[in-house]
Each structure stands twice: as C-alpha cells, then as structure tokens.
Amino acid sequence: MGERGAVAEGLRAYRLIAGMWVRSSMTYRASFVVTVLGNLTVTGLDFVGILLMFSQVDSLGGWSLPEVAFLYGLSVTSFGIADLAFGSMDVLGARMRDGSFDTLLVRPAPVLAQVGADRFALRRLGRITQGAVVLGWALVSVDVDWSAAKVLLVPVMVVSGAAIFSAVFVAGAAFQIYAQDAAEVQNAFTYGGTTLLQYPPTVFGKDLVRGATFMVPLAFVNWVPAAHVLGRPYPIGLPGWAAFASPLVAVVCCVLAGLAWRTGLRSYRSTGS
C-alpha cells in the first residue's frame, strides 16, 4: 500500500472508530448536552480570570483586553480542535502499562488512527465553542485596520494552530512510547502550551519566548501572526514574513511528529502484561 493509500486507510479507520464513540455518547442525549455545557463552563473560567485581571488594570504587558481576547480565542479554538481530534493520546502510557496497546498493534488498522480516535469525545466541542465566541467578540472589538491579508490570516491561524497542536499531541505520544508513560510531559506542552499562548508574549521572559518560537514553535499558533494583525512588533524581532509562516511551520511539525511516531512504534517493546 502506497503512502496515499495508507493515509486514506487511516482516515477511514479514524472515522469509523470516532463514529462508534459518537453514537455511544448520543445514546443519552440529555447527559451529552449537560456534559458539553459543563465543559464549556469550566473552560470559560480561564477567560473569567482574564476579565478579573482587567478589572484591576487597563492593559496586560501593554496589550488591551480585546487584544488579549484575540490571543485567547485563537489559542483556545485551535487547541480545542486538536484536543477533539487527538486528545485521547495522552492516555497512551496507561495503555502500555495495562497491555491494551498491544491489542491495537495486531488490529488491521493504522495504530495512530486507533489511538487518536479512541474514546472520541464530542463534549470537547464545548472548548471550541467557548474559544470561538471569545474570538468573535475580539474580532469586532479590537482596534485593527483590517486588510484582505489580515482577514485571511485569521482562519489560517486557527487551522495552522490546530495542526501544530495536533503534531505536539502525536509527538508527545511518541515520547510516551520511549518513556513508558510520562503523560505529564506531554500535557505540559499541550494544555500548558495553550495556557501560555492566552497571554501576550511581552509578559514572559525572552528566553521563554525564544523557546516557544524556535524549540517548540507554539508561538506560530497566535503570537507571531497576531502581532502582525494587531500591528505590534514581535518581542524577539522576527522578520515581517514570519507572520505568514504558520502553515509552513504546521507542515514541518506534522512531518516531524509523524517521523517520531513511526520511530517510536518501531522501538516499542511490549510490557508482556
């Protein structure tokens, strides 16, 4: 089977497994609605914290509330999409410990599709909805001289950001294969990463900003392109074209994450349980 055929097979397997979990969750519709609303409320508390901060100050790191809301909406929406698609990968370590990961290896379906779609949870739509609402409010409230390029850059940021976070999920799962767990390390870059990006880069030290730009390029989810949209200089002086590099960064991250995943699978040794 060629590379294209393998991708098609993986997407088909993912769709079938995710569909099974969706049908399961929709069996009890009232419980599903309550869970989604609860998820939306819990994730919304992050933005409530930001609102409380701005009740005491006029700006945060020199950024106004609509500008911070713009960062927040981009980060949460992008992460929410990736979490919906690959959020179950953080339990890979537990699967290896209890031996259920071995079961996935012998099934006639790509392992990545099986792990990614495992326990697919529509309740995570609450995070996406909440982030999109804040982003929508920010777009109409922020003081920006909109151009065609800036308007186009907004959906590009959301899609590219989701791809970057997805790559981090996959790379983190590959690391769990080597470490035989370490889910907390993966969570530091996924859940911790989206929390980091909800605030302006100007409130962090330059070493941290450099690390989030060049080592794990989460800055290209929103910090770098958003600086262009808002007419702000990036803290470490990147060239202007970097604002449009998010799609390229996303592709590179996905390729590297795929290579890491394949390498991890080849090095996997069963626990024997």
Automatic annotation (TrEMBL):
Signal sequence annotation: none
Keywords, sorted A to Z: Membrane, Transmembrane, Transmembrane helix
Entry annotated with the keyword Transcription regulation: no
Transmembrane spans: 30-57, 69-87, 128-146, 152-175, 208-226, 238-261
Coiled-coil segments on the chain, per record: none
Pfam family, one: ABC2_membrane_6
Listed InterPro entries: ABC-2_transporter-like (IPR010390)
Source organism per UniProt: Streptomyces hawaiiensis
Full protein name: Transporter
PANTHER family: INTEGRAL MEMBRANE TRANSPORT PROTEIN, SLR0610 PROTEIN-RELATED
